[in-house]
Design brief:
The protein is of the alpha/beta class. It has 3 domains: 215 residues, 4-Layer Sandwich (Metallo-beta-lactamase, Chain A); 44 residues; 121 residues, Serine Threonine Protein Phosphatase 5, Tetratricopeptide repeat (Alpha Horseshoe), CATH 1.25.40.10. It contains 17 helices and 17 strands. An 8-stranded mixed sheet has the order 1-2-3-4-5-6-7-8. The chain has a 5-stranded mixed sheet with strand order 9-10-11-12-14, covered by helices on one side. The protein has a two-stranded antiparallel sheet with strand order 13-15. Helix 13 runs parallel beside helix 15. The protein is globular, with a radius of gyration of 24 Å.
Length: 475
């Protein structure tokens, strides 16, 4: 509603504008003056970094979200104090549990830290995949300089990668420190109001479409509604990051009646809302975008359980709730695509039927290195009525590619072999399994599987190309 792309802007000193006249730890600093008593700060011209908002009130400074790296947040705290002309920090509010919003909480240990109760619960859990994240950052720090050398130094692509290099280094440093999280000290379940003298902050539960612990923050005196990482309907850069997914994830606790109630209450205040501010600087959301997403969640959360009661199958749901037919206004809107729509349908179907995704369970077991007995126990459910799981070829296939994206080809082979056994007339199942074998270094088996895929679908262009490449390499 207010922001424009900031890349390449000169220094602007005016309310509603942002300026990047200095650097913090090697990254451009942006300070956006929302109004005389509110600022928004972030680092980077290209990064999809968290944007911290700070408010000056008669009872002290309120900060909304950290950028997740204590070393950076310490610097930004000083910038905020400078910009607001005071240093009496009183509150930090976390819009949700993700580390790029909570990882800098320790910098505000002298403040009351406010969040949804599910944010507190999530932050108490041990950090998952830490070793994998460390490995990924180290590999990125080795690879990025090589990529940068291939580009003209002044090109936008090179500048973007240089920022990413600095950011990855800071993230790796924070991961290696492995500091215990600084937990919220005040939580709520539905709504909370913070009275800060001349400023009131209304906090609302908004979880389900990003994390379980998402909240919205409305500040009537400023006409500002902060929406965290839940939604955007305009990209300001080509690196949307956390704002790219609007979906209902399986296994994420959600309370749709409460969500819809709170969103409805906020939409009823549309005349008071002058500005909607996402949690990352490079996206924007409008009232119409908010309304469209409200209607979407209402239609999906109420429609799918009703369709299941009417006897609709999972395949029926994919047809009846096709994005282009059911929600044409959201096609190509940020956060909406076929994959996200499929995830939402599967999650809501699981809720309505009580069946769990076999793909999800098999992925978990294989990731843990479970024995074959545990795998067979899941597979046996396919023929049981009632069973515990639903089996969807494309979902199992997708989970296999998650393993490949994590550089785990052996695990991918194991899962995609199961998929080919479950769906033996699927050419795509064999095509995917062939790719996994190839990435696992077994080209002989990959050739056999590509041949099988082509027997089932002679028009499989990818199979033809990969088979020709493998045969040429084998000679």
């Amino acid at each position: 509603m207010r922001r424009v792309s900031l890349v390449g802007l000169a220094v602007l000193i005016a309310f509603g504008a942002a300026h990047a006249a200095e650097e913090v730890l090697g990254l451009p600093l942006h300070v956006e003056r929302l109004n005389p008593k509110a600022v928004r700060v972030w680092l980077g011209d290209y990064l999809s970094s968290t944007a911290t908002v700070a408010l000056s009130t008669s009872n002290g400074i309120v900060v909304i979200d950290t950028v997740g790296i204590p070393k950076v947040d310490q610097e930004l705290r000083q910038v905020i104090a400078r910009e607001l002309g005071r240093s009496d920090f009183k509150y930090l509010i976390n819009t949700h549990e993700h580390a790029d919003h909570t990882g800098g909480n320790s910098v505000y240990a002298d403040c009351t830290i406010v969040a949804h109760q599910l944010c507190l619960e999530a932050m108490k859990r041990p950090l998952q995949h830490r070793e994998e994240a460390l490995r990924w950052h180290r590999e990125s720090l080795e690879d990025l300089p090589r990529q940068i050398k291939k580009l003209p130094a002044a090109s936008p692509e090179a500048k973007k990668l240089k920022e990413e290099l600095v950011h990855q280094g800071l993230n790796l440093e924070a991961l290696q420190a492995n500091l215990p999280p600084k937990l919220p000290t005040r939580t709520f379940a539905d709504q909370m109001t913070l009275d800060l003298g001349d400023t009131t902050l209304e906090l609302y539960y908004a979880g389900s479409t990003h994390t379980a612990s998402d909240i919205f923050i409305f500040i009537p005196q400023h006409g500002i509604l902060m929406t965290g990482d839940t939604m955007a309907d305009v990209w300001l850069t080509d690196t949307p990051g956390c704002l790219a997914g609007f979906r209902v994830n399986s296994g994420v606790p959600h309370d749709f009646p409460l969500l819809l109630q709170n969103w409805s209450l906020l939409l009823a205040k549309r005349d008071q809302i002058k500005d909607l501010i996402p949690g990352h600087w490079n996206g924007d959301i409008s009232i119409k975008g908010f309304e469209d997403r409200y209607r979407y969640i209402k239609a999906m959360s109420e429609g799918i359980p009703q369709a299941v009661k009417e006897g609709k199958t999972l395949e029926d749901l994919f047809g009846d709730f096709r994005l282009s037919a059911k929600f044409p206004e959201l096609v190509n809107s940020p956060g909406f695509n076929g994959q996200n729509q499929a995830v939402t349908i599967l999650s809501l179907y699981s809720d309505a039927t009580g069946l769990r995704s076999a793909a999800e369970r098999l992925y978990e077991l294989i990731e843990q290195g479970a024995p074959e007995d545990a795998i067979r126990e899941v597979l046996a459910e396919r023929d049981r009525k009632p069973g515990k799981y639903f089996f969807l070829e494309v979902e199992i296939n997708g989970r296999g590619y998650v393993f490949l994206s994590q550089d785990k080809p052996r695990e991918a082979v194991r899962l995609l072999k199961i998929n080919a056994d479950l769906f033996p007339i699927s050419w795509n199942a064999y095509d995917s399994l062939a790719e996994a074998h190839m990435k696992n270094g077994d080209n002989v088996e990959a050739i056999k599987l590509y041949e099988k895929s082509l027997e089932l679908n002679p028009d499989n262009k990818n199979g033809k190309e990969m088979l020709a490449r493998l045969r040429a390499g084998a000679k």
